[in-house]
Amino acid sequence: MRRRGRAVRASVAVFAEAGRETTVTDRREELLGFLAALGAFGVWGLAPLYFKLLGHVRADEIIAHRVIWSLLFLALLLLLRDGRRALKRLHVSRRVLTALAISGTLIAVNWLTFVYAVNTGRVLSTSLGYFINPLVNVVLGMIVFRETLGRLQSAAVVLAAVGTVYMTVRVGQFPWIALTLAGSFAAYSVVRKKTDVGPIVGLFWETLILAPLALVWLYGLAGRLQLEFDPADIAETALLIGTGLITLVPLVLFAAGVRRLRLSTIGIMQYLAPSMTFCLAVFLFGEPFTVDHAITFGCIWTALVMFSWAGWSQARRARIPV
Asked: In the chain, how many H helices and how many E strands?
């Protein structure tokens, strides 16, 4: 009996130790995921600082370089990650390729609008656009995927629309930058949701499809003597090449974070980037922030709180861990 008792206690100790190791491993993975996601949203939030350094370069030239250098860095990453299997991983159907051509066009519009806004002193508009983005996602989800909205979610969308209309009427300026950023990225998300392709492979194909147009565009700028790119200018060349890294690095970090964190955590963290951009616009770049701006942003922020609360409540009722 004593031997049996010792054996039972030993077994319990082994299982307890295994449980502790599992918990420690889970916590470590969660911490790594949090740091990766924080890095991704940090890069996105501070991106205006980077593109301000290229303020003397035309936005269309910057985007052409961004496409080309992103493609090269993506190809290198795929080769390092997959080796000989890289070509096999890149195989997609014609239908998926068509979808990626559409999504590539949408992300190019998004990039161009963002860089144009930053380099013309409208960083605050980019912040507004990315705050609105989750709400535009909801509207497109309702239209495209027949998703239903609860009362609180519907009220959130209406409140965001009120804020947008208020800015148009009171400030006297249609917020086209914010709406273009939100709309293009929301549409991009819808198209990508319909394509069963990973983020790295998908972006590789998108930039590969856009690369010929980017090269032709740069050639045209050179022909009109409007090309700023000068290989002799090492600092400028490094910054233009770096547009590829500033595209790839946060994408890789975000993918690592999503694998290790709950989606609810990612959902909350997504507001870090526009919050950082907002602070840069107001406190560093000194862009005007009037009472009318405060009312508009107040409507959007209140709508986001309502929307997030509705999602949290639904998850809790469905007993989904949040």
From this structure: 12, 0
Region of 83 (left: φ > 0; alpha: ψ -120 to 50; beta: rest) is left
Per-residue pLDDT of the chain (322 residues; tens, 9 = 90+): 555 555 555 554 544 554 555 576 778 888 898 999 999 999 999 999 999 999 999 999 999 999 999 999 999 999 888 877 777 778 888 999 999 999 999 999 999 999 999 999 999 999 999 999 888 888 888 888 787 778 888 888 889 889 888 888 887 778 999 999 999 999 998 898 888 888 889 999 999 999 999 999 999 988 776 777 777 789 999 999 999 999 999 988 998 888 888 776 777 788 899 999 999 999 999 999 999 999 999 999 998 888 888 777 766 666 555 4
User: How many structural domains is the chain composed of?
Assistant: 1
Q: How far apart are CA 296 and CA 290, in angstroms?
A: 10
Percentages helix, strand, coil for the chain, rounded to the nearest 5?
85, 0, 15
**In terms of residue numbers, what domain contains 236?**
31-315
The pTM score is 0.85
Residue 11 within a domain = no
The answer to whether position 4 is within a domain reads no
